[in-house]
Here is the input.
Amino acid sequence: MTPAPPRPELPEAGEAAPIQPRVRRAWYIACTSAELGQDVLKTEIFAQPIVLFRGGDGAPGALLDRCPHRSVPLSLGRVVDGQLACGYHGWRFEGDGRCAHVPAFLGTPDAPGRRCLAFPTREQQGFVWIWADPGSPPVGEPFFFRLMDDSRYQVITRVLHAEGSVHAVAENALDVPHTAFLHGGLFRVDAARNQIRCVVTRRHDRVECAYIGEPRPEGLVGRILSPSGGVVTHSDRFLLPGIAEVEYQIGDENHILVDAALTPERDHRTRLTAVVAVRTRMPLWLIRPFAEPAALRIFGQDQRVLAAQTDNLRRFGEAGFASTELDALGPHILRLMRQAERGELEDPDAAPYQREFSMRV
Amino acid sequence: MTPAPPRPELPEAGEAAPIQPRVRRAWYIACTSAELGQDVLKTEIFAQPIVLFRGGDGAPGALLDRCPHRSVPLSLGRVVDGQLACGYHGWRFEGDGRCAHVPAFLGTPDAPGRRCLAFPTREQQGFVWIWADPGSPPVGEPFFFRLMDDSRYQVITRVLHAEGSVHAVAENALDVPHTAFLHGGLFRVDAARNQIRCVVTRRHDRVECAYIGEPRPEGLVGRILSPSGGVVTHSDRFLLPGIAEVEYQIGDENHILVDAALTPERDHRTRLTAVVAVRTRMPLWLIRPFAEPAALRIFGQDQRVLAAQTDNLRRFGEAGFASTELDALGPHILRLMRQAERGELEDPDAAPYQREFSMRV
Amino acid sequence: MTPAPPRPELPEAGEAAPIQPRVRRAWYIACTSAELGQDVLKTEIFAQPIVLFRGGDGAPGALLDRCPHRSVPLSLGRVVDGQLACGYHGWRFEGDGRCAHVPAFLGTPDAPGRRCLAFPTREQQGFVWIWADPGSPPVGEPFFFRLMDDSRYQVITRVLHAEGSVHAVAENALDVPHTAFLHGGLFRVDAARNQIRCVVTRRHDRVECAYIGEPRPEGLVGRILSPSGGVVTHSDRFLLPGIAEVEYQIGDENHILVDAALTPERDHRTRLTAVVAVRTRMPLWLIRPFAEPAALRIFGQDQRVLAAQTDNLRRFGEAGFASTELDALGPHILRLMRQAERGELEDPDAAPYQREFSMRV
Here is the structure.
């Protein structure tokens, strides 16, 4: 077999490091409120180890997991009277990083060099959020899950992890074409394709793709949700810094809003906090035994692909994704993240960018 | 104890990286024909992941294991109608790298940016060969095992792996002095040494050492092969880019030709495809039960030494091998590989380099 | 919670490499005399692999664990007639590094390029010491354990390992404040604190802290040693290059001298050879069943903290230890080690540096 003259050059193994945008001036979910009890909790954001604990008033504190004294991880310590005590010499810290106590020391404990690096926190709707840039004061408030407290909706929350960047996980979560192939049979089916119109709209802090003329999805999920068929209104959205939102209206009675809040624990490991709000014709207790295993199986397939993709990104770098117009949101998400990383969002009042294309689903 | 003044300087741990020659413009065995069935097969060459599959005509295709779309390994995919389909979005590729199908896409699938990097392939004598430099057209044809199809010979093929470079494995395979020590008792014995003449001949693409006056090897292997003794004609050869050949004629009736085709999967991991052709006084079914376990035991000892040598080469670098004239071929192999790496072989018509020395075996 | 403006900048993960001083021109314990029998013994110093063996006269030889011929670790070999034979080709070396034998070779085995890098050795008091810089002749003799051969003392020797640098292990071993917290209840107790005076004295090659007015330690160890109470004389000392010494006199009859000889196997792995000499009111057989498990438990707690500290030092670097005056010896130990690393000790005849402070114990 004589191959065509090769086009891409052979990359040197391990040479090209992937460069993931790091949107640091942003709120990310660190954990659920329930996860943070009276013990310390260890997490990471942008590969920085962070220790969480509840102060005397119950409010969450988030400190870099490093005692300023001898660099020992504070997560080896314990909470004493609402202060975090290092496990080595017992130095104690407030949630704002101030040193409150140095055992055996006759002087004043607090001093500039003896403070911990503290991350601003918020607790709302059952989640603990961290402002990822301790060097800048928080701007704005964390994302609000708009249907979470709406009594007409049933809400399910799940925490998952993927070995992929926020960008890769968001693109995967909001990508339509791969579902027919990777999740073929479970979600959409490969045969009997219909041509639909897709409208991409990008604003300064978000990008959305609306799918027009989409029939009720074939396959298991579609049949359960809407046995009688019906018109589908379907939009996929990304909101800075890391919210992937999928919204389905199927017929009149079925409304599903899936919000995945993505936390960059490392460049290529993402915590995914999924909040699924459902208003449906059928009672949730009837759908859930089918939908939940299917959703977890789908996510398992995605996790495997994302991990393999990450391996190759580490090896070959990220340059050279060969997108088609079907990659409706991925390139826009990357653009928004890079702008946010540099702090150079576009004018909120400018007319949105729009583009249309067709695809077979 | 007062040591003599030290001569070599203490190398800094981890400082010196070994620099293995990489002869890229060359054919290497990727797998046996039997290994490549209807499924995809994953391999590496110079640490580049490569996916192999059979196209519609059954001919082997070899692509860089990276889909140009989203960088996912193609080896997670499957073969559909003689095309390799990526497991993420179902893009399909021919063996020459062209994109043949993009599911849901209304446009033309093939485009320069959507092609895979393809490696030329050959299939001959039951082996699939890859041309390791996809950026240059193949020059010449793969090595031909000259006795493999000769009906007077019985042929055994074995695939083995070693944690060592092509150079280290070739030198080991063609090195006489270590056999007495490392494999002492199994192959040669340490006592009762004879002095023999050795003649090294190097041409532009090969180097050979002929051993003159060698008695029938003592030890197990020799006694089985030629119980009556007899004159031995023994030559060890290296042929670019990575064939290590050992040839023995013992008495009139025994002829053994061992060809080890070496594939650089990584700088320090080599696939060794051994083709052993034997014409012997004794039937092979009688020798094999003794010879095969002995050969595997010998190779196991070599594997252990090669892996330990590789550890030290990684730590200390390769500079400073202290060769004597007994290292008949190793330095020449390195010289040939470096010349081939730079594409600067010596004149094929020049008189060969020759050198003689003596050793006790 | 609104944190105070952060002071320290967020370090980039993995950016700052810890820079441990490496005092190479020094004697370190490689092993006990008992550990080095007739077989080869493998160890490391400053991450250099070293192979130890006993020569024909029984004296220990220490060679870089790399055969000059083909870089194979000599520790895969064996001792033959008081020479170390490489396991690959059987080259043999003396303890001073000279090549004594090359099998099959007709020439003279020894030659400058065929010598091993040899480390000077000493054997005394049951320990094998290595001079860590093979490029310079030894200066001075190894540390002498002054009470080891004193018949009035009972001596216990223990070899332990910690995942921490010599500096971190020495500071930990000589640090008073952490014992109340980390080992609380076992050694000292957190309540009932007394204020004591501490006097730090630093000379060119050592630094000591004397604790004045210290009551008999509360807690288990103190009660066993000196049931009747009594005045305590307590000094902690560090002696270059790596001896941490703790000395207690409790009442008239109890004298404990703990010498920990620290060997830098790697920048962050330390071999600790503890020699505990005890003269006590109570027979050792009565104390030992209590003291030994307690000491091992204390050391286990220290090992865990040291390993976690090392993780953070690797991540964040060592800059920015926030010391108070309670860190009586650590900063001085670092200063002495850096001076010794550069070979620039202060004038031995200069007046010592002195400083006093108070603490609660």
Q: What stands out?
A: Helices of chain A lie at 166-173, 177-182, 219-225, 284-316, 330-342. Residues 154-360 of chain A form a domain with the Naphthalene 1,2-dioxygenase Alpha Subunit; Chain A, domain 1 fold (CATH 3.90.380.10). The CA atoms of residues 167 and 334 of chain A lie 7 Å apart.
